[in-house]
UniProtKB/TrEMBL annotation:
Organism of origin: Sideroxydans lithotrophicus (strain ES-1)
Compartments where found: Cytoplasm
Family affiliation: Belongs to the class I-like SAM-binding methyltransferase superfamily. rRNA adenine N(6)-methyltransferase family. RsmA subfamily.
Cytoplasm recorded as keyword: yes
Protein role: Specifically dimethylates two adjacent adenosines (A1518 and A1519) in the loop of a conserved hairpin near the 3'-end of 16S rRNA in the 30S particle. May play a critical role in biogenesis of 30S subunits.
Taxonomy of the source species: Bacteria, Pseudomonadati, Pseudomonadota, Betaproteobacteria, Nitrosomonadales
Protein name per the record: Ribosomal RNA small subunit methyltransferase A
Gene field: rsmA
Catalytic reaction equation(s): adenosine(1518)/adenosine(1519) in 16S rRNA + 4 S-adenosyl-L-methionine = N(6)-dimethyladenosine(1518)/N(6)-dimethyladenosine(1519) in 16S rRNA + 4 S-adenosyl-L-homocysteine + 4 H(+)
């Protein structure tokens, strides 16, 4: 039997980015990090073959799962007590999490090929979320939690850090999966920043400023943001126009965007 055929008889499907976690020690570490409580409103994204589903259900009264693979959905309907699992069939990118009771806790081994769009989709529901624990490509996690003036720091770092407190928790090697991916993985914890503490007043404008600043990463702010504000305004805000986008933290980007929107 080919190595990509899982012991349970399911063939991993590349179009869904499926890599199934099989390392029991890693699974136990993840569940300990999540600390599920019986009454949690928990949602698992892409339960797959149940690596996290089964141990989570030992602690939870109810678990919601979002799954797109029809073969796995059929397994979910037969392998688990239906009074403890609520199956939402479809694409997590299109799922309306506002239909579930808040506050939500979201977990999952996210498909690496759509991880960034999924993270931004979850951000739209941040006010309804207590925390999130995700398995992601390690490179993506490093970018998410990166500090300014480091190689990993970029647009993704800024756009998530203004909405979430984030922490890398666990390194997960390729051999922990079947089939083994070609990259290292990691678990990240994301806790939404309360709405009253978010420093950005106009999110759409903030996103445009960040995108423009990182659009030509090696150029200085004087050049990348010249269509938004003159060099004199940067100086007025206490920001050196000779700096590059990677040198600014979230507060500085928020300061620029708020200045442009008249909220400074």
């Amino acid at each position: 039997m080919p190595f990509w055929i899982i012991e349970m008889g399911h063939e991993a499907k590349k179009r869904f980015g499926q890599n199934f976690l099989v390392d029991q020690n890693i699974i136990a570490d993840i569940v300990r990090a999540i600390r599920p409580e019986a009454d949690d409103n928990m949602v698992e994204i892409g339960p797959g073959l149940g690596a996290l589903t089964r141990p989570l259900l030992k602690h939870l009264n109810i678990l919601h799962v979002v799954e797109i693979d029809r073969d796995i959905i059929a397994r979910l309907k037969t392998d688990y007590p239906q009074d403890k699992i609520v199956i939402h069939e479809g694409d997590a990118l299109k799922f309306d999490f506002a239909t579930l009771a808040a506050p939500l806790r979201i977990v999952g081994n996210l498909p690496y090929n759509i991880s960034s769009p999924l993270l931004f989709h979850f951000a739209d529901y941040a006010a309804r979320i207590t925390d999130m624990h995700f398995m992601l490509q390690n490179e993506v996690v490093e970018r998410m939690v990166a500090a300014p003036s480091t190689p990993e720091y970029g647009r993704l770092s800024v756009m998530l850090q203004y909405r979430f407190h984030m922490e890398k928790l666990i390194d997960v090697p390729p051999q922990s999966f079947r089939p083994a991916p070609k990259v290292d993985s990691a678990i990240v914890r994301m806790i939404p920043i309360p709405a009253g503490e978010i420093c950005v007043k106009d999110e759409a404008l903030f996103a445009k400023v960040v995108s423009a600043a990182f659009g030509q990463r090696r150029k200085t702010l004087r050049n990348t943001l010249k269509n938004y504000l003159p060099e004199a305004d940067l100086l007025q805000l206490g920001i050196d126009p000779q700096l590059r986008a990677e040198n600014l933290g979230v507060p500085e980007f928020a300061l620029i965007a708020n200045h442009l929107s008249g909220h400074a």
